[in-house]
Amino acid sequence: MILKKIIILALTLFLTACGASKFLAEPSSDKVSLVFGYIDMSDAPTELTWIRTRRIRPDYSEERGAAVLDGMFYNTWQTPGSYKFLSFGGYFNNGMTRYVNQMPAQGRSKLDAVIKKPGVHYLGSYKYVRTPDNSFELVAVKQPTEKQLLLKLKEYSKIPYWTTIIDKRLKRL
User: Could you write out the DSSP letters of every residue in the chain?
Assistant: First the structure.
């Protein structure tokens, strides 16, 4: 039983770490965007450690994740199209239990991205708030700002392509 728990913990940590580099990835083409936002999980059962999203237009794609760093999430793979923010969450019980916050399957949520052209796309900053029915809602907050998050992302950009795009956006803010 203990060995089984150790194996499950090791697999969970391995799968969580796969592709978990915090540095912005080399762009796969000039059609990808830097998509980012923030969720304050201080009132949630777990920290934010993972996010799942999927492109739904112009075609349907597999679920994909995003890097997460202190509540900020970001990815560098989204091409023009419509995306559905599916779920987010974290782990508790020493990594043994995955906690899932499922977004509504129908309609558009605050975090569903519509990308018309490549560039920088800020999805907003939100606070996780528990509701009386033991569910949750994401409430827009003013901090951290887009500028603050971009400055943080710039620290993790070793790729000139992303640094240039971030600098251009910072100049417009």
Answer: -HHHHHHHHHHHHHHHHTT---SPPPPSSTT-EEEEEEEE-TTSSS---EEEEEEEESS----EE-EEETTEEEEEEEPSEEEEEEEEEEEETTTTEEEEEEPPSSS--TT--EESSSSEEEEEEEEEEE-TTS-EEEEE-S-S-HHHHHHHHHHT--SHHHHHHHHHHHHH-
